[in-house]
Amino acid sequence: MIKKNTFFFGLILILTGCSMSNPSTFSEKAQNESFLDLNHTSVFFKDILSKNKGHKILINVWASWCSDCVAGFPNLKEFQKNNPKVKPVFLSIDRSVFRWKKAIDKYNIEGEHYFIKNGLNGDFGDFLNSNWTPRYMVVNEKGVIELFKAKKITDKRIVEALKK
To answer: Which CATH architecture describes the domain 24-163?
Structure first.
């Protein structure tokens, strides 16, 4: 009985340890996922990262239907005003391109915008391992993930990660 309990305890530790990990780089599959830009052109995530290399990036995974996302926009705008050198990259998991673009205009969201074609159901979503929006990540100038998961723009870990 003890061996059986030890086995299950070890298995639980392994499984929860994997799900709670904080990767420092994006998986190859996540990097090869194709998004849409505002011109409806397909863009690989690795090209978005490459385009922003040399800059600190704040990635915001959001959706127009997400009430927490919308409620956080005033704080996000304040954050952007206070951190003008940080490049904001918005990745939408909206259900339609029309609603995505309409929300960008409606809320006057400034930054780079991309539509995740597969939402959270593709390789990028698998990498995030999340069922919550908004989701904030900080990526440094070299493309290393400094902060993998924050749910609010007011999370103090975002500013701490940007200082690294």
So the answer is: 3-Layer(aba) Sandwich (3.40)
Cβ atoms of 66 and 134 closer than 8 Å: yes
For the chain, the domains span 24-163
What backbone phi and psi angles, to 5 degrees, belong to 42?
-70, 135
CB contact at 8 A, 146 and 152: no
Q: Enter the tokens of residue 154.
A: 């007011």
Residues near 82 by beta carbon (within 8 Å), at least 6 away in sequence? none
How far apart CA 60 and CA 63 sit, in angstroms, is 10
Token pair, residue 127, equals 């990498």
pLDDT tens, per residue, the chain with 164 residues: 555 544 444 434 334 334 447 899 999 999 999 999 999 999 999 999 999 999 999 999 999 999 999 999 999 999 999 999 999 999 999 999 999 999 999 999 999 999 999 888 899 999 998 777 899 999 999 999 999 999 999 999 999 999 98
Which structure tokens are listed for 33? 């996922």
Residue 86 in 3-state DSSP? coil
